Amino acid sequence: MHGFNFIERFTPLSLSLLLFFSNALSANEELIALGEQQALVCKACHQVEPDSIAVVGPPLWGLADRNIASFGGFNYSKGLKQHQGRWDAEKLDAFLKSPATFAPDTNMVFPGVEDPGARAAIIAWLASKNPVPPTWTTSSAGAPIKSVGEGILEPGENMELVAAVCSACHSLHLVVQQGLSKDSWEETLEWMVDEQGMDELDPDEHEAVLVYLSTHYGL
């Protein structure tokens, strides 16, 4: 009888705690999923899975387990090498906001992520890319997150894909200034791959980018 009363008394508390942690976990998983969408631009130059190698940039897997600018064999800029210690949420937030400000002579041409909510989501996603994910949170976690390209590019199917592909190398404002035929956009993409080091897109993504650009920024 006493055992029944004990369970009856404490079960509501246990359920409340279970619901609290379950909701917190769901919220974090949602933030990570949003961060992965925002991080499409990162994947253009960085590998993100275990056993990744350096390509255009060093791999992003395991950032929490190594010092800043320390991936073996990669040629980091002097500005980035000047930062001591390991990455944390505060340093990542500053770097993502403006790589050129964080490391003035950085080799990254990416202009940065202005939206603080998007940076918080990317940081949550980066935390998940570690053998033991660290607790990386910023004050902007939970803030509204703009879609990639929102407010700059014309709304439409595959806008986020185009934003991620194009913003990896230059400002999206450069895109909106153009007015090219589909063939000219094709030539531009080929030039970006051949001359500017852009990773070649798979056929479906390539066609999706061309259709969006020629539809919204075509002749």
Terminus-to-terminus distance: 82 Å
Low-confidence stretches: 13-25
Order of helices and strands: HHHHHHHHHH
Rg for CA atoms = 21 Å
Overall 3D shape: globular
Q: Structural class given helices, strands, pairing?
A: mainly alpha
Biggest sheet character: none
Total number of helical segments?
Answer: 10
Count the beta strands. 0
Helix content: 40-55%
Overall mean confidence score, pLDDT: 83
Query: What is the strand content?
Result: under 5%
3D architecture notes:
Mean pLDDT is 83; it is low at 13-25. The protein has helices at 2-38, 40-43, 78-81, 89-97, 99-102, 116-128, 159-167, 172-176, 182-196, 203-216. By secondary structure, the protein is mostly helical.
Question: Care to give the gist of this entry?
Answer:
With 219 residues, the protein is mainly alpha-helical.
Topology:
Elements: H1 2-38, H2 40-43, H3 78-81, H4 89-97, H5 99-102, H6 116-128, H7 159-167, H8 172-176, H9 182-196, H10 203-216
Helix pairs in contact: 1-6, 4-6
